[in-house]
Specification:
Elements lengths: L1 H14 L3 H10 L4 H29 L2 H21 L14 H13 L3 H13 L3 H24 L6 H23 L7 H24 L11
Helix pairs in contact: 1-6, 1-7, 2-5, 2-7, 3-5, 3-6, 3-7, 4-6, 4-8, 4-9
Length: 225
């Protein structure tokens, strides 16, 4: 249950303002929201099943102490990635099949290498399980995309993207730091290394937040006819 809840919460937070959530919102302007959600479900289910299986495979061939360190460090990277933010670059116009297959294929490809897919791998490694992580991340994607479609498209409101990004980023970074503290030998945590790590993290957050302010990131708006 811990793996399921952690996977669900992490993905819901990480997906807020993410490229794939923006993609689902853009498709909801063109197609029925039910079609979009079904396509998102099947694309996510397949994508994240492969990701969770990859994480389980890594856990089987790499020593667990190294796996835990790498997984914890990856969560810090995901937090910084969240601060940087994402934008669409025409992914919603790349394919022209039936509505279901257009959404499913575009979503599956957009999710390849995305932070929610990589987070699924890291969570599967962290908890050494496939099914519960897969179920949690898949449901998390559905919840976050449903929120985006309902709030952004149906209600015509703006999601508090900045607030959600910072909250998600801090959760990721805190989880990563705690994981490193639990995984690394205690002698590593010298005052010099801790101070240097904090300074490096703060500098990274500062520059990424400046980059994010310079980008124009807006949720898709449906054209009213």
């Amino acid at each position: 249950m811990t793996a399921f809840l952690a996977s669900l919460i992490f993905v819901v937070l990480a997906e807020m303002g993410d490229k794939t959530q923006l993609l689902a919102m853009a498709f909801a302007c063109r197609y029925r929201w039910q079609t979009v959600m079904w396509a998102v479900f099947w694309a996510t289910a397949l994508n994240h099943l492969l990701a969770a299986a990859a994480g389980k495979y890594l856990a089987a061939i790499v020593p667990m102490e190294y796996i835990k360190i790498a997984a914890s460090a990856s969560f810090i990277i995901f937090g910084l990635w969240t601060i940087r933010g994402d934008t669409l670059h025409g992914e919603d116009k790349r394919f022209n099949f039936s509505p279901f297959w257009t959404v499913a294929i575009a979503f599956f490809i957009a999710e390849m290498g995305d932070k929610t897919q990589l987070a699924t791998i890291a969570l599967a490694v962290q908890y050494n399980t496939v099914i519960t992580v897969w179920m949690g991340t898949t449901l998390g994607m559905l919840i976050s995309n449903a929120i985006g479609i309902i709030v952004g498209i149906v209600m015509g409101k703006n999601i508090p993207e900045k607030l959600m990004k910072w909250f998600a980023a801090l959760i990721f970074i805190a989880f990563g730091i705690y994981g490193l503290y639990e995984s690394l030998p205690k002698h590593v945590w010298s005052p010099a290394i801790v101070t240097g790590g904090i300074i490096l993290l703060l500098i990274s957050i500062y520059f990424l937040s400046r980059m994010n302010r310079q980008k124009i990131s807006k949720s898709p708006v449906c054209e009213r006819k």
